[in-house]
Amino acid sequence: MRKGIVKVSAVMGLLLLAGQFVSCDKKAPVKTNEVIADNIENTETTTVKEEIFYRKPVVFITGIDSSEKNFYKSARSYFIDKQFEVVDHAYSMQEIFNWLNKNYDGNLYGEIHIVASHNPWEGMGLETLVKGDKVTTESLRKAITLGTLPSLKEGISKGTKVIFHSEALGDNVELMKTLKDAFVGDEVPNVIASPYVAVFGGEFSSHYLAKPYYVFFPYSQSPGKVDLSKEIARKYPEEKDIDWYDALNNVKERYVGDPYTNRFSIPVKWEFDYTNSDDEMPKLKSPEAIMDWIEQDEKLSQAMKKYNIPLEKFRWRSTVKGNKLIIKGKVTVLCVLKPLIKPYGDLQHVEPDTENLRLYAMK
To answer: Where would one find the signal peptide in this protein (predicted)?
Structure first.
């Protein structure tokens, strides 16, 4: 009988002990939850958004007009009317960078506008260094690599826009990339340019964009507007809205959207010194002989391929001075400009909106 009582007592003891462990297990989660709640309460922080201040847009007028053009003058007037800060007499990237460093006032540069001529064959009218080479991918990359181009110390952020107002610069992908590398400061800015031609001082709009079309002929040897209109029509068969003959005879926009033509020339010049050469100086007596000689020389042939203009479109001449052979070529470029107009509503130019990726390329 006593054994039975002992057994019952032992079982009751075990049950009580197990009950204590169960009770402890029930309390543990509650205790942990309290600690987590305390940690959350203690680690709460208040985020304060820092306000960024940008200074008024600054515009660099980087050239002087010829007697036949008013590109820079009209652009200057346009930006003055917008009450932007206009900087004259900055004709090189070096001068632009020096100005930006010197005039930084503690507020970040928001918009940096650069008005500069450009064509797809010769690069920009803007110099790389003062009295140095014009800005091309090669000249600018060299200046960056050698450290001869000043670096931007302060004022450039990821919100900075460097906007080039030029002719079809947005299509020059390599130059756009190099320009972006040049403008990198503490942060990387946005470099913006249009694949269209920037036009200032129009009769119907003070600033608009136009699509360019090109046709070529040897300098001072025009075949005539009829033949040129047929040639450019064959070159751009997808363009059905332009009367090419009329456009080649127009020098300005007669009404909103009216195509018209600009003219410029591209020169090529090489000098070869045969003073200490074992090679005999060639006798190039005709343009055909010069073109044959260029095609047979790998370096000259590659150089001309970059222009993407047929050799026969250049007027070629060669002269000899002592032991030097001088070869010159020159081509006339007729650029038909078709202003971009709104496809609906009143006849108006499309607004040059730099946020519109159909109008501007961004790097």
So the answer is: 1-23
